Amino acid sequence: MSRKKEEATALAEVPVDKPKSDPYASMLSRFYAAADVVGLTPEEKEILSRPAEIHIAYLPVAMDDGRVQVFESYRVIHSRALGPGKGGIRYAPEVNMREVMALAAWMTWKCAVVNIPYGGAKGGITCEPKKMSVGELERLTRAYTRAMSEVFGPDKDIPAPDMGTSAREMAWIVDEYSRLNKGNFIPAVVTGKPLELGGSKGRVEATGRGVTMVVLQALQRLGRRPEGLTAAVQGFGNVGSITAKYLSQNGIRVVAISDKSGGYYNENGILIHQAIQYRDSHGGILEGFKGGERITNEQLLTLPVDILVPAALEDQITPQNAPNIQAWLIAEGANGPTMAEADAILNQKGIVVIPDILANAGGVIVSYYEWVQNRRGHYYTETEVQERADNTIKQAFDDAFTRAAAQKVSLREAAYLIAVERVVKALRMHGKY
Ligand code: NAD
Question: Which residues are catalytically annotated?
């Protein structure tokens, strides 16, 4: 195929209403805006606009059919100003370095906005976990742990699950990392572990529960009751399904859900426990679910609902679809679901957006408790974990809400101001070298 033809074909494959995304650009534009208000020096801006470290490893893995496949993997530490690097590991075919860089920086701002003593990091492996066997995934995870053994550490960098990974992968990392350290059992090197290996009660549900807590807190501050409101949730994995469950338990009618297979709409409310059961018995996907009529992911975003929860991928709310969004409250369960260029449109429409760095921080809050429990060797009850986490995220929401009102800015801008201020204060205390 000629070069021109190739280009034309590639362009035709990019849907016109969804420009090619660069989450790092979205992260940077919000950071720069806050940095100017906070008064960072050009040097401080330069430091925080780049990752502190980028580690890339190519991992040869023996596949079940006898071939050896090489996987590209990353670990990015954005900042250790407030503490050790902290952030999940993503397994997905679209994983790329700029995405991991953006996700690492968001972790810095997220930990800062909820005031936990961590920096920001993120990891990723470009792979298709749903098409790999358990054995292949275990070999891949162990290879990644060996490659990153000098990067990870309970006082250096503490991974956790993200899209495509779960407690199972964290267990393999603890095992491999402990073997590499003369057999000393070091559970605090990762969070989101199975309970049997030092995981925390309440961790699996923590992010979705946190999203619900900030939604309820926002409703309270806006003088609205949850009963009778409607919601649409994009993404039906860990974050989306648990948010949907808690929202409906709090009287909010979840009328639409979606995942990779598309969307499902039922104006009387989707029965969330039924959808979760269906997904779990169908290989983790909703394909074929009969609890609602079929819609597309794009349609889900613009439904006439009160609350919209994007909980799947980055760059779903774009300047193209933002004008058509009808919800008046958006809680960003996913990281970076809104392109920076869409912010102004949402603000203009008066939509209240609870930004990702605040809305989905419930997971990292409970990860912090898990790490504390591992280090103390003392474990909390589920109620203790939930009460602490609920209070922490509600406090962070109130701080952002108060700041937004005082400075007449959006919740996102307020959250960034709080986060950037905390990080730069710590950076200054570290001193020059
Ligand atoms: P997951 O792998 O459990 O679920 C992802 C969901 O998104 C699945 O239902 C998948 O089918 C769906 N999806 C994938 N591609 C899609 C598409 N093109 N359109 C619609 N749906 C699509 O992942 P998760 O842990 O729930 O993470 C979801 C988001 O939340 C990510 O942005 C992640 O970074 C963020 N997040 C997760 C946590 C956590 O604790 N798991 C914490 C904070 C933020």
Answer: 122
Domain-ending residue, one of 133, 168, 197: 197
The CATH number covering residue 286 comes to: 3.40.50.720
Contact at 8 Å (CB) between 281 and 250? no
Distance CA 120, CA 87 (A): 6
Q: What is the DSSP letter of 317?
A: B
91 and 189 within one domain = yes
What 3-state DSSP class applies to 194? coil
Residue 167 lies in a domain: yes
CATH number of domain containing 62: 3.40.50.10860
DSSP 122-146: EEEEES-GGGS-HHHHHHHHHHHHH
Tokens of 363: 């997971």
Block means of pLDDT (10 residues each) for the chain, 433 residues, are 45 42 88 95 96 98 98 98 98 95 97 98 97 98 98 98 95 98 97 98 96 98 97 97 98 97 98 98 96 97 98 95 98 95 96 98 98 97 98 98 97 98 98 83
How many CA atoms are closer than 13 Å to the CA of 389, on its beta-carbon side? Answer: 34
pLDDT tens sequence across 347-401: 999 999 999 999 999 999 999 999 999 999 999 999 999 999 999 999 999 999 9
Ligand 1 neighbour 292 (Cβ under 6 A):
no
| DSSP character string of 151-184 | T-BTTTEEEEE-TT--HHHHHHHHHHHHHHTTT-
Q: Which of 76, 108, 259, 354 to mutate to test the pocket of ligand 1 (most atoms within 8 A of CB)?
A: 259
- Beta pairing partners, 338: 317
Residue nearest to atom 15 of ligand 1 (CA): 260
- Does ligand 1 lie within 6 Å of residue 160's CB atom? no
305 within 8 A of 256, measured Cβ to Cβ: yes
DSSP letter at 287 equals T
**Where does 343-405 show beta strands of DSSP type E?**
352-354
Question: Could you tell me the two tokens for 94?
Answer: 């679209």
Range of the domain at 242: 206-359
Same-domain check for residues 210 and 193: no
CA of 311 to the centre of ligand 1 (A): 6
336, 359, 382: which is the final residue of a domain? 359
The rounded distance, in Å, linking the Cα atoms of 389 and 8 is 50
